[in-house]
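Q: Here's a chain of 258 amino acids. Please give me its 3D structure as tokens.
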Amino acid sequence: MITISQLARHAGVTVRAVRHYHQIGLLPEAERDASGYRTYGAAAVVRLIRIRTLADAGVPLARVQELLDADDAGFARGVQEIDKELRSEIRRLQDNRTRIARLAAGDHLALPAVVVSYLDRLRALGINERYLDLERPAWIMLAAQVPEQIDDIVARKNAELEDADMVQLYRLLSEAIDWSPDEPRIVEIADVLERLMFRAVEAGESGAQGLDDPFVQLMDAAMSEASPISGRILKILQGRGWKGWTRIEQAPSTSPRP
């Protein structure tokens, strides 16, 4: 008969592990001898080795008892089920590794692939990274708020880039990163933006389909905070009867500017 420390050594585990197996019912505790010590026999060593072997193979401890008590056919079925679960977990971890690798590119963090492609298209048009850094948070919030609509939203944005005014607006905003609020060229941005807003209204597009009022207000606040010139542009547009960034609204009397 052997002590708990000898049992642990023979099975290649720690005494702490043996006690844990006792606690969760995988390994029965031995009776105490006349001296008050628990002593174990060969059967305990064999069972402990089997427990360690299964655990080292990746079998969850919650399933070890089931396999230890199963007949040959049941053991084979149990192992096959665990193998299937492990393969599923491996696929999940491989997917995670792929996502982690993509994060190194920056844009992939919290952004779907269609948005990343759209930002790449803006880069190809010469839009600088500092401007994209301002626009990215809005895309992250939008993708999280309406994930089922993001493909359609990006498709519309890509279509808008066929409009020369939209490309001009992006280029002006890209150049305006360091402008002060009293920069005269801000009026040019407001002019281009207003032409785009008129066309959007005529097409029946508000720019905020499916978005509730609190989220629209959040998006507007994010846009206003992104650049010191945002407030000036908004004031110019408000003076012309327009309201909001995310949801386009106009006063009934507003008419197109030349």
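Q: Can you summarize the key feature?
A: The longest helix spans residues 72-103.
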